[in-house]
From TrEMBL:
GO MF annotations, alphabetized: glycosyltransferase activity; histidine-tRNA ligase activity
Class II Histidinyl-tRNA synthetase (HisRS)-like catalytic core domain location: 37-176, 225-353
Xref: NCBIfam families: PRK12295.1-5
Organism: Marivita cryptomonadis
Protein's recorded name: ATP phosphoribosyltransferase regulatory subunit
Gene Ontology BP terms: histidyl-tRNA aminoacylation
Residues binding L-histidine: 69-71, 96, 110, 114, 303, 308-309
GO cellular component: cytoplasm
Chain segments annotated as transmembrane: none
Keywords of this entry: Glycosyltransferase, Transferase
Length: 365
């Protein structure tokens, strides 16, 4: 009987069944180590990942991390090969600290599916979303979609300085910091007294000053120069602030969101290529049998939990159990393949399912 099987064993059985479904769809099974080199992960995500990952030191291999997810190792594996189109599926434990959600597990199972090399990005996006939607259909979940590519296009198209665009681009995935930067660049927040004093001074670092923290003296000096250069610029216009707010506020069904964003693009034409990709994806989803007219789209979706995605993003959630984490999340991450492929890019889209959450909701078997 199911209740006589240990909980972790039941989760694993659920994971194997989901993984078998992706294998039946043509994916190859993928396995990777549980201990991964911290160097690559730190290079990708910076020191922020230390707050979420479990870090240890190996006497021969140096600093290591318990696997926070599968995406980086599967991308490394694929990019080390011939680059031909391929799809992979996997399952296994991942480890993440849950300081913001102490009631959630820090060790849990993931099942994933990844597609590489699809020449038609819209069709690949629709296929991956469709596969997840089909696999999870018995649970009656709420789908959510977004597009980080639209936000990237928004920032790239702003009529402001290159330094300001670069700063906003770095913080697309940190909404609070992003909003604070917009307000600062627009002169909507008062300058802190310490920064005002620094900007008003014509001196740099004291020669006999004591260095505190990880930044070098050169990095600190460059930061001071950047702050002074930005302070000399005119504030960002209210029109730009309003355009940013308008894009981020879009939350409608896909067709209505597309229409709304095209209206905004009259004043922000840099959005148009990303909106063309959005429209092509909607058309591909219709061909895949997905009810796009009822599919939600949120321009801000994915900004807090999907750092390496740079295009289409999606998730599936239980409306009857809002206390649970997402049942599944995924999206497009072409830029990550470029980073890990030493400049060689391979289109990629995929996602992960939490079999423990599936089990909480009654299971698929």
């Amino acid at each position: 009987m199911a209740q006589d099987i240990p909980y972790k064993s039941r989760v694993r059985i659920e994971a194997e069944a989901i993984c078998d479904g992706f294998v039946a769809a043509g994916a190859a099974r993928f396995e990777t180590d549980i201990l991964l080199s911290a160097e690559v992960l730190l290079d990708l995500y910076g020191e922020d990942i230390r707050a979420r990952a479990y870090v240890t030191t190996d006497p021969e291999r140096g600093e290591m991390m318990l696997r926070p997810d599968f995406t980086v190792p599967v991308v490394q594996y694929h990019m080390s090969g011939d680059g031909l189109p391929a799809s992979y599926t996997y399952f296994g434990e991942v480890f993440r600290k849950q300081e913001d959600h102490p009631d959630r597990r820090s060790e849990y199972m993931q099942v994933g599916y990844e597609e590489f090399g699809g020449a038609n990005a819209a069709a690949a996006d629709a296929d991956v979303f469709g596969q997840f939607s089909d696999a999870l259909a018995p649970l009656g979940l709420r789908a959510a979609t977004g597009d980080i590519g639209i936000l990237i296009a928004m920032v790239e198209g702003l009529n402001t300085t290159e330094d300001r665009r670069a700063a906003l681009m770095r913080h697309i995935w940190r909404p609070a910091r992003f909003t604070a930067l917009v307000k600062r660049f627009a002169g909507l927040t008062p300058v802190p007294p310490s920064r005002a004093a620094l900007l008003a001074s014509d001196v740099g670092l004291p020669e006999d000053g004591v260095m505190i923290g990880l930044r070098s003296e050169r990095e600190i000096a460059n930061r001071i120069d950047a702050l002074r250069a930005d302070a000399a610029q005119a504030p960002m216009s209210s029109e730009i602030v309003d355009l940013i707010a308008a894009v981020l506020a879009v939350s409608e069904t896909c067709p209505n969101a597309l229409e709304h964003l095209r209206d905004i693009a009259v004043d922000l034409p840099g959005l148009l290529p990303a909106l063309d990709r959005f429209e092509a994806r909607c058309e591909a989803m219709v061909q895949r049998g997905i009810d796009v007219d009822a599919l939600p789209f949120e321009a801000s979706y994915g900004r807090t939990s999907m750092e390496y995605y740079d295009g289409f993003v999606f998730g599936f959630y239980s409306e009857t159990r809002p206390d649970l984490p997402p049942v599944a999340t995924g999206g497009r991450y072409d830029a990550l393949t470029r980073r890990l492929g030493q400049g060689r890019e391979n289109p990629a889209v995929g996602g992960v399912i939490r079999p423990d959450v599936v089990l909480e909701l009654g299971g698929l078997r």
